[in-house]
Amino acid sequence: MPLFTREQIKALTTEQIQALTVEEFKSFLATQIPAFDINQIKALTTEQISWLTPEQIQALTTEQISKLTTEQIKTLTTQQIKAFTSEQIKSLTTQQISRLTAEQISELTTQQIHAFSPWQISALTLNQISDLKVKQIQTFWPMQISWFIPQQISWLTAKQIQALTTEQISELTPQQIQTLTRQQIKAFTTKQIKVLTSQQIQALTTEQISELTPQQIQTLTRQQIKAFTTKQIKVLTSQQIKAFTTKQISELTPQQISWFRPYQIQAFLPWQISALTLNQINNLKVEQISALTLNQINDLTAEQIQAFSPEQISELTTQQIQTLTTQQIQTLTTQQITAFLLWQISALTLNQINNLKIEQIKAFLPWQISALTLNQINALTAQQIQAFTTTKRKLMNEATIKIINKTNGKNYERLQQKNFTII
What would the mean pLDDT of 125-131 be, rounded to a whole number? Predict the structure, then answer.
């Protein structure tokens, strides 16, 4: 056989080729292999295919490779598969690729994997992808990862997901991201989470967002936090919200803060409440303000209290008003004082009334003064009483004046000392 010329080889019939023994077949030189035409290659039995030596395999032309039948492909041993050159791998058709066995796939070398084209990668089946070794997964060029169709990405096992390099993770397309399963999302390492781009973060579905673990949440960078959409913010669980660090809380945009549902706001821990920036506080919606727990109200700093807009102040509930500390009460600006509604004025505790600053007392509007109860009036200090102007006292409603007249006590005398006229 080694002496056969090219012409003699081409003259061999199908019957003659299939009659060749293993010794005769293996005696063909590597240089003679390219002389076999396509029909002769197709005529080789699966047994004869298995006889091909590594040298003979490498001598096959890309055209010969592309014409191998699916049955012939499946017959190739792992040693023969390993002998394929990069160019030969590139010549495999999608049908041939899809017929490679799990064992054959698991033996592909780094150079062979690097040779895969987009359409070859898209031809990989569920079983083939599942059988890729962790080291093989890491072998794919980052760009090749983006060639996987979205459904194929969802076939990766948790171990394969964790094996993806940060460079490979960053190449995942939004469409691929959206096909990740719950188990795959949870499998992401903190290093992998950190490299997700803003576009990838925004591609996460609400179901995927709700699967992020507290550890993954704490890994999110500033850019990733700011990439969260309205829908994503609204599905964050209480456990996830509690996982945010103070730095992450402060990195949420004021607009993002306004997207939290009232019950989500209630999940904020004391130190998270204290971490809210003044702009974030100022952007809280009225329903979010009303949802703040009494402990959360107490955790607000003086600066945060001052950041409340008049509209926000008007939304504080009776219980929220009454839980304000002396320091918080004294922090209120005159503009905030004038925003108090009648029922909020009446809700102020005697201790809160007693600790109002003179500037705050002076800021009371006439109709707010009329809302003061008898006990609240009696709680006013002499200095506070003196802060009321004659005009404001004259505008007090009849009910309040009657209360003052009936006291015949210290506050009545203080009012008289100021020469206010009771009408």
Answer: 93
CB-based contact 368:398 (threshold 8 Å): no
User: How far is it, in rounded angstroms, from Cα 143 to Cα 102?
Assistant: 24
For the chain, the farthest-separated pair of C-alpha atoms sits apart, in whole angstroms, at: 133
Q: Please provide the DSSP assignment of 139-171 as one string.
A: HS-HHHHTTS-HHHHTTS-HHHHHHS-HHHHTT
Cβ distance 77 to 50 under 8 Å?
Answer: yes
Inter-residue long-range contacts of 327-333, CB under 8 Å, 24+ positions, other chains counted: 327/302, 328/297, 328/298, 328/300, 328/302, 329/355, 329/356, 330/355, 330/356, 330/357, 330/360, 331/302, 331/305, 331/306, 332/305, 332/306, 332/360, 333/306
pLDDT for the residue 12: 85
Cβ contacts of 8 within 8 Å, gap of 6 or more: none
**CA–CA distance, 92 with 117 (Å, rounded to integer):** 10
Tens-digit pLDDT profile for residues 305-364: 999 999 999 999 999 999 999 999 999 999 999 999 999 999 999 999 999 999 999 999
147-152: long-range pairs with CB below 8 Å, 24+:
147/116, 147/118, 147/121, 147/122, 148/121, 148/122, 148/124, 148/176, 149/122, 150/175, 150/176, 150/178, 150/179, 151/179, 152/121, 152/122, 152/124
Do 400 and 369 meet the contact criterion of CB atoms below 8 Å apart? yes
| Segment 94-115, tens digit of pLDDT | 999 999 998 899 999 999 999 9
Give me the amino acid identity at 185. I
Q: HSE-up of 273 (CA within 13 Å, CB side)?
A: 23
Residues shown for the chain:
423
Q: How far apart are the first and last CA of the chain?
A: 130
Mean model confidence pLDDT for the chain: 90
Contact 59, 83 (CB under 8 A): no
3-state SS, residue 232: helix
Query: Can you tell me whether residue 123 is helix, strand or coil?
Result: coil
What b/e readout covers 167-176, taking b as 16+ CB neighbours within 10 angstroms? ebbbbbbeeb
Angle between helices 410-417 and 398-407 (to 10 degrees): 110
User: Is 70 exceeded by the pLDDT of residue 420?
Assistant: no
State the pTM of this model.
0.82
